[in-house]
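PROTOCOL LOG
Step 1. Enter all chains and additional molecules of the complex.
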Amino acid sequence: MTAVPPRRRMVPAYLATGGRSRPSRTAFDRLTLLHSASPDPPQGLEAEHRRLWELLRPGALTLVEAAAHLRLPVSATNFLAADLVDAGGLQARSPIPRAQQIDRTLVERLLDGLRSLR
Amino acid sequence: MDSAVSGSRIGYLPDRDQVLMKMLVAGPFGVGKTTLIRTLSEIPTLHTEEVMTETGAPVDDVAGLPDKTTTTVAVDFGRLTLPGEVVLYLFGTPGQRRFFPLWQDIARGALGALVLADTRRLAESFEIMDMVEEQGLPYAVAVNCFPDAPAHSAEVLRGHLDLHPDTPLVLCDARDRATSVEALIALAEHVLHSLPSLPQEQR
Ligand SMILES: Nc1nc2c(ncn2[C@@H]2O[C@H](COP(=O)(O)OP(=O)(O)OP(=O)(O)O)[C@@H](O)[C@H]2O)c(=O)[nH]1
Ligand SMILES: [Mg+2]
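Step 2. Run joint prediction.
Step 3. Record the structure below.
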């Protein structure tokens, strides 16, 4: 047997803990954009992590879309995604890139887009 | 086979610099929220199962699930990609006060809310209008015109709904794309008017 380097055991927080004692994790927005950050899955993924990673292998989805496709609550999917980001398997991007705020410029862009549907 | 995750039905987003925005579609039971989202969405509408305690607090872990004091609420949503690298998400949100904490959680970061109303039971939209106002979200009211419902002029409806003069009121048919788009435009215009005219950093 070859020695396995020590690594954090990735147990879904929502399964493994009684709740109160779980470590604080990044709270993503429902619209946080998740996409794959590695061509191969990180080593030793638990089944639920693996499902999320596989879902995102072909492309990007928001957290809430990933939750819907996996049929998991958003909060549970958040934990899985945070673990995978820590493990280098996923990247997460905020809904509004480059730390912009929702401002008039962005709402004007939205309005122009909606008006183009007329 | 895991049909929930398989195949080409998953609408991946192109990995560009899109801005992702969110609006709520709110209103009482059966008023047409899901219909309006389905009419506008480019993907088949999706839903998440949100776990709440009976008191209405969202449960942010489901470890204690066997506990009978939790209930599950389905929250459906759709997605609309617009020119200009904007992707708009529409979340259907329940109108009952007991869902307020869940509602607040979904409302966080939303631009505004489209409150749907039915002329046969306008008062059923009051509760959600109160919640939206408490949350400080700009909103527009869209009266979903069911064929067998009495038709009223906009002025009469404004009076019955006791709307602030600035709150937009539109008539729509949730099954019809054109009138549903107009409802979103009315809301987006109202959101724009309610934003400060100077960027915050210049204050
Ligand atoms: N005639 C007509 N029927 C509509 C319209 N909008 C919705 N309906 C019908 O009304 C019923 C309820 O619509 P939904 O879209 O499911 O309403 P909802 O607000 O999502 O309902 P809940 O999620 O149960 O609260 C469905 O049978 C729709 O087909 C409309 O504009 N005109
Ligand atoms: Mg519905």
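Step 4. Note key features.
Residues B 33-34, 76, 92 surround magnesium ion (ligand 2) (CB under 6 Å).
Residues 24-116 of chain A form a domain with the Arc Repressor Mutant, subunit A fold (CATH 1.10.10).
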